[in-house]
Amino acid sequence: MAERENPLTEAVYYILLALRKPNHGYGIIQEVEQLTGGRVILGAGTLYGAIQTLLKKKWIDIYSIDTESRKKKEYMITDLGRQVFETERQRLEELLENAKLMHIEKK
């Protein structure tokens, strides 16, 4: 069972999404910016702080280290991270469905 850590922050949600395949820090920043149409731009401090937390929680793992390129690391989501992400995705889906059911309209 996924750890009860929901709701996730938007940054963590997008980092986990960007790590569905191996990716390095700058690649994560670029992918999140692209996915959100530039609405979410992760700063290096936010990203690397989140990466350290996600590594400790075992939601992501180091996939590879390029020793030729300043020890650039690639990360990838773990099975536990996928469970946490899926729980959050379902929670967000429920929020949207409930809003549609209630037909909340602008005035």
In terms of DSSP E residues, the strand content is 5-15%
| Helix coverage percent | 40-55%
Terminal Cα separation, in Å? 42 Å
Provide the spatial order of strands within the biggest beta sheet.
1-3-2
CATH superfamily: Winged helix-like DNA-binding domain superfamily/Winged helix DNA-binding domain
| Series of secondary-structure elements, N-terminal to C-terminal | HEHHEEH
Which fold does the CATH topology refer to?
Arc Repressor Mutant, subunit A
- What is the domain total for the residues? 1
Give the number of DSSP strands: 3
**Largest sheet at a glance?**
3 strands, antiparallel
Overall mean pLDDT: 90
- Class derived from helix and strand content: alpha+beta
- CATH domain class name: Mainly Alpha
Total DSSP helices: 4
Q: Over the alpha carbons, how many angstroms does the gyration radius reach?
A: 16 Å
Sequence stretches where pLDDT stays below 50 over 5 or more residues: none
Shape: elongated
**What's the CATH architecture?**
Orthogonal Bundle
What does this structure look like?
It is built from four helices and three strands; from the N terminus they run αβααββα. α1 (10-18) crosses α2 (25-35). The model has no long low-confidence stretch (mean pLDDT 90). Strands 1-3-2 form a three-stranded antiparallel beta sheet. By secondary structure, the chain is α+β, with helices and mostly antiparallel strands. The chain has one domain (10-102): Arc Repressor Mutant, subunit A (Orthogonal Bundle). β2 (60-66) and β3 (72-77) form a beta hairpin. It has helices spanning 10-18, 25-35, 44-57, 79-102, and strands at residues 23-24, 60-66, 72-77.
